[in-house]
Specification:
Two copies of one chain form a homodimer. Helix content of chain A is 28%, strand content 25%. The longest helix of chain A has 18 residues. In chain A, strands 3-4-2-1-5-6-7-11-8 form a nine-stranded mixed β-sheet, with helices on both faces. In chain A, strands 9-10 form a two-stranded antiparallel ribbon. Chain A has 250 residues and is an alpha/beta fold. Chain A has one domain: Stationary-phase Survival Protein Sure Homolog, Chain: A (3-Layer(aba) Sandwich), CATH 3.40.1210.10. At the A-B interface, helix 2, helix 3, helix 4, helix 5 and strand 9 of A face helix 2, helix 3, helix 4, helix 5 and strand 9 of B.
């Protein structure tokens, strides 16, 4: 008897997030799904690890666990403590909002998939653009299709997929494009205000200013109502610069 | 009159860290140095941004500021609020411990430099291996040399340098090597214990198990008592996989 694939699901919006629940449900047709996700919202926590505090694991239901840490903590604890065997696939998401362009460096959802990539496990990050957050179903259906393909074909070692889905009904999405990482313009991202005691404070997360127009980029694809699939690499050495630097005399 | 270069210095070990102070002092010969660093230790915080809390900036002395956030927060606030002009160079460190192989994804020190790379500013991450943390001076001297060269030559847009220095007196370091990102073996990284109430907890940061033997890698260079310089890229698209995926029918 062929063993059912083991699929680990995580996210950065937390174990109670709508996107996570819809994703886990959609993947159940493909194998055994185990959820290990943060106990609270952890957006923009990137690839951070909790080193200065102990972590707790809570079993919430059969095959559903929360961890008092970051998405990377979740994957580390899942692989080392919770699961008895290596998963065949890790899917992170569905993120409540896009992860395109430079977002990939800040995103906890992408980092959970990245941690899988570091461990040599085929991994996918799924994000839904967020006009009004209505169309998780479109992202979940595509998550199932792309997961099925990755379970069959595998991925090159050290490469993960970053998938972004427009917030549209399935029939209004024009298809998918294989893309490269684009570049967002973050604009005037810092808001500064004064607190009740008259002291200044700053809050990150102001305006976003669209993105650079780069053909074949993730940003362009989603703007044109296509799903974007970008392969991202764990080895981030810039090969062309290796040669340039070797002629430097430092 | 030629304007003096403006150099922004940050780290993830916090504004009081020895490595930061030695670095800032060493770079003063090259231009005006402004320090903007976290108010406390933020190791392994990766590229996280504080979105859920307001941030404070404290001016501690002339050209020295602390921020109640992560290294990425520091760079964002420095560029958008503290500095009047774009810096010519960002140097992050000197990290108390190596950032080699997959470390680059977890490190706050590397991420501060990365944020510079995202903003198109030549940026360098400096780390000292940590046998006993005695030889910050070796790293500071090399930081000065490599910074001088980068100020003169620039770096390709979207590329940063990740520099790791062995914890040895300068005369025992054999030179420097231009390297690619290697791969560490993290081994059995989770410690599990029981608290006074009998509940289990987990702590990340157990054994490190050496690294894979990869010629020309950062890990190999520092093991052989060389300084390692690795160019890292902001665009982490895996180009070879783009082609492979376009033949998939998802």
């Amino acid at each position: 008897m062929t063993r059912k694939p083991l699929i680990l699901v995580s996210n950065d919006d937390g174990v109670q997030a709508k996107g996570l629940k819809i994703l886990a449900r959609a993947l159940k047709g493909l194998g055994r799904v185990i959820v290990v996700a943060p106990d609270q919202q952890r957006s923009a926590c990137s690839h951070s690890i909790t080193l200065h505090l102990p972590l707790r694991i809570n079993k919430l239901a059969k095959d559903i666990y929360s961890v008092s840490g970051t998405p990377t903590d979740c994957i580390m604890l899942a692989l080392n403590e919770i699961l008895d065997e290596k998963p065949d696939l890790i899917v992170s998401g569905i993120n409540h909002g896009p992860n395109i362009g430079d977002d990939v460096h800040y995103s906890g959802t992408v980092s959970a998939a990245y941690e899988g990539g570091i461990e040599g496990i085929p991994s996918i990050a799924m994000s839904l653009l967020f006009k009004n957050g209505k169309h998780f179903k479109s992202a979940a259906e595509f998550a199932k299709r792309v997961s099925k393909k990755v379970l069959k074909e595998g991925l090159p070692r050290g490469v993960i997929l970053n998938v972004n889905v427009p917030d549209l009904p399935e029939k209004e999405i024009l298809g998918y494009k294989i893309t490269k990482q684009g570049k967002r313009n973050y604009g005037d991202i810092i808001v500064d205000k004064v607190d009740p005691k008259g002291r200044k404070y700053y809050w990150i997360g102001g305006d976003q200013n669209g993105f650079e127009d780069i053909p074949s980029s993730d940003c362009n694809a989603v703007r044109e109502d296509y799903i974007s699939i970008t392969p991202l690499r764990v080895d981030i050495t810039d090969k062309p610069t290796l040669k340039k630097l070797s002629s430097w005399n430092i």
